[in-house]
Specification:
The structure holds two protein chains of two kinds. By secondary structure, chain A is mostly beta strands. Helix content of chain A is about 0%, strand content about 45%. Classes of the chains: A mainly beta, B mainly beta. Chains A and B meet through strand 6 and strand 10 of A and strand 4, strand 5, strand 9 and strand 10 of B.
Chain lengths: ~110, ~110
Amino acid sequence: AQRVTQPEKLLSVFKGAPVELKCNYSYSGSPELFWYVQYSRQRLQLLLRHISRESIKGFTADLNKGETSFHLKKPFAQEEDSAMYYCALRPPGTASKLTFGTGTRLQVTL
Amino acid sequence: DSGVTQTPKHLITATGQRVTLRCSPRSGDLSVYWYQQSLDQGLQFLIQYYNGEERAKGNILERFSAQQFPDLHSELNLSSLELGDSALYFCASSSRAGGSGTLHFGNGTRLTVT
């Protein structure tokens, strides 16, 4: 069975500092990995997906199959990045059932 | 707003009761998913419907059931409620049953069982 682990419940950083939100997964294959974000009083929304290899709002995430990780990174944190971040996994070729991690709250302070 | 709509926003009820949570998917989306979010366990997948038919099942209790109607809205029924059922229940929709459809989430229904 697949599992997504986000070891940090809360990550607090200063504005301008680098950010890395950790995500590890267990799945014996090549899953699709996603990061979803939930800003205060807003709905959960897709931030980025590994197959797109894109940078959204300055965030990037690289899939490391050797370490089974998909850490989310940003070189310089902004106040507006404060939110709840969820890593999610979906096995390929299945109905779009996402398995989510427990989430990490990012707090960016001045 | 043609996004995913969930009603009610908040629901407080007593143990043993039964409630129905409603979800209207994004316009054009055929798939509806239900997730339960609790403090300890994050987002747990409950069930998925595609165009009226059950497509995938997760950790959904037997006391819980769901359906998707011809107009594509979905209802999640929770019965014989227990204190531990208190959680945020999210609905999400996507345009496809599988493949690469992105999930679009509603604002959730906060259920409190007292």
